[in-house]
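User: structure tokens for this one?
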Amino acid sequence: MGGRKGAGVLELAVLGLLHESPMHGYELRKRLNALLGMFRAFSYGSLYPCLKQLLAKGLIVEDRPEEPNTALALQSRRSKIVYKLTADGKERLQQLLTEAGPAAWEDEGFGVHFAFFSHTRADVRLRILEGRRSRLEERLDRLRAALARTRERVDSYTLELQNHGLESVEREVRWLNELIGRERAEQEQEQAQSRADRADKTPNKSQDTPGEQDR
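Assistant:
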């Protein structure tokens, strides 16, 4: 199950990065390391099997430049291949970006979903943020309970480590609270603007029609 989740995260990351611009394998590896390395250990060996699967599904295509020298072409073939998103790939990416279930709240899934929030609908962003906060609040309860049970039985260094873990989760919950508050405020502002725009376009029935004032 964990492997399938990891593959889903990698698929989203690859499609999301290729949506921003076509890339060759080496550049894609660097970008993935910067993106996924913040949230989990990224294995370079998992990239090319993922690309192979995406190619087989028609979600990406290879752009192979013509090489006049055949030997040189064989030598540099992989480094010269540029991967591009197809129309089906864009559709698949949008599908992944609408998923707001538990997989998007977990540690590795949340980070990648958050990295592509600019391409994600506002209501989906809010559900993911709220789901992540709920998951961390559950984790906080467990950490506090464990700390209360073991406080008197562990040495000072272990206690400091447990406190550090607790404070890290508390900081993320505060950060999520700020993001959720901002998202809600922006959505309320957009809704209010939308209502105002509709009101401006609605004819005012209380106004007299031309000629009625003279009757």
